[in-house]
Amino acid sequence: MKVKRLLSSSLLILAFLPALILSIQPVSGQGVGVPKLIVSSVYWGANPMVPLTASPGDKDLTLSIIVTNVGDDYARDVKGTLRLQYPFRHEYYLDGEVHSAESISRIAGDIAAGRSFTFQYTLSIDGGAREGVYRLPLELTYRSARILRETSETIQVDVPVWRGEIHIQSTGTTPPKVHPGDAQVALTVFIVNSGSGSVNDLKVSIGVHPPFKRSSTGSDESFIGTIRPGQVAQVRFLLDVSSDAEPGNYPLELYAVEGSNRSLIGVIPFTVAEKARLKVVEVTPTTVRAGDSGVTLKVTVRNEGGVKAESVRVRLLAGNYFSGTLSDLLGTLNPGEERTAFFLVDVDGRAPPGDYTVDLRLEWTQDGVYSLNDTLPVNITVSKWTIPLILIVSGAAAVILLGAAASLHRRRKTGS
Question: Helix or strand or coil: residue 20?
């Protein structure tokens, strides 16, 4: 009877043993968790709400990389090492010298499951880089509760670089109408960046060639610096126009300058308007004597251009040996018309004999607005002062008359 009970108990234990074993085994999915790190975002700048655009030539720009733990356990002692490749570099100073790093490491510490950390790296971009997306390897190292040894994995990070596109938006000159002989003409150029990236360290220059020249050293170039996308920059150049420039349109090239290299931005149409061409056609007399006073010098001026000159005033810039009334008003000179200016000239008695070239200054207006001028040469010959023949004859006659009078006086005195 006891044997039967013992056998029954044994069979009962064997029947429930599998269930007991299963009840003490760990349930699948309820073991130690595993961290998993991914790159969830990459942007330039420190604020994800206001990201920056990175362009060739940018220096010390912040690249932010957000790493998120999408696993179910802590990632311990997380470190992110960014391996640098062209066109990116990171420069630092050591013992007063500049060095370039091949990689940059940052420590994140522990990242809990579902949490993120932002790695920030300071980078510079080569000025010759092309626009596009570059891939940089980011090495992430960490530990976990399940894997006590350090784990390392490399993720390729897409890093965008944008280039700017510079165009000429508009141009203007001061004065609005440019004529031959104008000096220090201000050429204003508005430049716009229509690209997706910034243009850095921008320097521009104007191609100056005849009939133009720069007004002073450096007046044909300008440093702008950085132009961001959509931004407009204004530059100004100062040019002189040759007095013999023909009226018409002239192309002026605008260049972007980087060191000794120049790249064409665009061509500026520069218009030179027609100017009245006033010429001296006759001067009378052409010879005066040293010591002459009140000589009427007549200078005839003709307008040989195709536009009229209004309120024409002439001045004789005669120098040290000439004085008197040396200005006259001619009024309006239509194309092909000529007028004569009258000057009353006194010649210094100490003027050495010879040929003199004096300046005739002409000033007038065109279109009722523009004050123009020109300077033309006038040739005058100064001869030695000599006693005029009439004075010689008059003097001789006076001597004869005085002699005759004296002789007659003596005869009368003797006869008495």
Answer: helix
